């Protein structure tokens, strides 16, 4: 009696001890036929010891026997079979796991070492598998099917948690990823991984359009230049290694002064490599320059002028929009300059508020009544002033009369007549 088990690493055939272990064999066969073990993971693997599986939850605490479908919860576990005696003396022995009190369920393990005889008195023997079970196909079933057990027509589909779960070893993943690699290869993989992580960060912050974008391999980065070095000087020096498509010293936008580094684009990668090996630490204009491959991706988006040999099609002159009809003005005075807004001033604001309050009081009805009262008061005052003026005029007139009389009295003619 045999069962074919398909795994991601190949097919396995497990021979069952039907005569020696009839209840265990029936349990295993019917669970396989029920697709109970499909997509199960090996939740416990110990080198040179055992690999344990058979729990759909993957925790090592679940699973139930086929007898639960026949007898309900009381059939979740069944008693282990002790006779005849079998021993875990070789690799590949399949045994049901003892769940306590010598009760068995659906979990089983596969021995990965030899002479594990201390497991003989606890567990009941069974098969071989690695890392995961994809399908179980029963080749021959000597037991009759019970009508109380329902068998699905197809294998169950994997759940989303099974597909995205990352805390378990994958079906085709090695336990030690660095196995068989040299120290240089491991260091290079770490460096590549760090570069990929940094590129993803730059993409998230917006410095890169794409994390997989790489700088051009035909562009050199030159730094530590002398401020007096020009673009033409660099192009003449580096052109002996090959055709230079573009040579540009980066300058300050305002002052136009050299920032002492440049980018040199060659026509091909071979010329770029030759210039890299030959020109590093070379003396140019009394300065030792440093040359390296460019790590900037700005050259990928920089506008490149077309070749002068290619004739460009004539450009059409864009039509200007119709002009507005100018209106003739009677006077041709230049518009007054726009006054700048004055800075706020507490005194000026207070004067403005006072004028506003005075204007508001002037227009209020109470102000009109006050004006009438003030007018009457002014009339009364004017009457008083007129009366006082008349009295003063009368007094002045009387004073004039008295003075004339006195003057006539003391005149020489008056004295002569008196003689």
From TrEMBL:
Region span, Disordered: 299-419
Top-rank EC class of the record's enzyme: isomerase
Catalytic activity as recorded in UniProt: [protein]-peptidylproline (omega=180) = [protein]-peptidylproline (omega=0)
Pfam families: Pro_isomerase, RRM_1
Main localization of the protein described in the UniProt heading: nucleus
GO molecular function list: peptidyl-prolyl cis-trans isomerase activity; RNA binding
E.C. number(s) listed in UniProt: 5.2.1.8
CDD domains xref list: cyclophilin_RRM (cd01921), RRM_PPIL4 (cd12235)
Domain RRM: 218-296
Family statement: Belongs to the cyclophilin-type PPIase family. PPIL4 subfamily.
UniProt name for this protein: Peptidyl-prolyl cis-trans isomerase
């Amino acid at each position: 009696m045999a069962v074919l088990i398909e795994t991601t690493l190949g097919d396995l055939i497990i021979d069952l001890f039907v005569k020696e272990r009839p209840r265990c064999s029936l349990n295993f066969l019917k669970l396989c036929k029920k697709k109970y073990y499909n997509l199960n993971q090996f939740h416990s693997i110990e080198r040179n010891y055992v690999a344990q599986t058979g729990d759909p939850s993957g925790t090592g605490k679940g699973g139930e026997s086929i007898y639960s479908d026949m007898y309900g919860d009381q059939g979740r576990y069944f008693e282990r079979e002790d006779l005849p005696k079998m021993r875990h003396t070789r690799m590949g022995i399949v045994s049901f796991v003892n769940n306590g009190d010598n009760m068995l369920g659906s979990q089983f393990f596969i021995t990965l070492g030899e002479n594990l005889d201390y497991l003989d008195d606890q567990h009941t023997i069974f098969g071989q598998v690695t890392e995961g079970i994809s399908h179980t196909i029963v080749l021959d079933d000597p037991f009759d099917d019970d009508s109380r057990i329902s068998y699905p027509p197809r294998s169950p589909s994997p759940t989303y948690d099974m597909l995205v779960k990352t805390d378990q070893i994958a079906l085709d993943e090695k336990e030690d990823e660095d196995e068989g690699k040299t120290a240089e290869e491991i260091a290079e993989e770490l460096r590549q991984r760090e570069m990929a992580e940094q590129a993803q960060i730059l993409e998230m912050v917006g410095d890169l359009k794409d994390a997989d974008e790489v700088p051009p391999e035909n562009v050199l980065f030159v730094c530590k230049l002398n401020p007096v070095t020009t673009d033409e000087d660099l192009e003449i020096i580096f052109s002996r290694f090959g055709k230079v498509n573009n040579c540009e010293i980066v300058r300050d936008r305002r002052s136009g002064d050299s920032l002492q580094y440049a980018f040199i684009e060659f026509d091909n990668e071979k010329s770029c490599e030759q210039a890299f090996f030959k020109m590093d630490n070379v003396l140019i204009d009394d300065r030792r320059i440093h040359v390296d491959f460019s790590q900037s991706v700005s050259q990928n988006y920089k506008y490149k002028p077309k070749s002068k040999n290619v004739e460009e099609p004539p450009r059409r002159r864009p039509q200007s929009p119709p002009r507005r009809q100018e209106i003739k003005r009677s006077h041709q005075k230049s518009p007054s300059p726009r006054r700048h807004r004055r800075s706020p001033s507490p005194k000026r604001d207070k004067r403005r508020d006072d004028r506003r309050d005075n204007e508001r009081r002037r227009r209020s009805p109470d102000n009109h009544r006050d004006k009438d009262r003030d007018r009457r008061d002014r009339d009364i005052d004017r009457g008083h002033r007129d009366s006082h003026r008349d009295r003063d005029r009368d007094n002045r007139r009387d004073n004039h009369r008295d003075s004339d009389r006195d003057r006539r009295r003391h005149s020489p003619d008056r004295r002569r007549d008196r003689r």
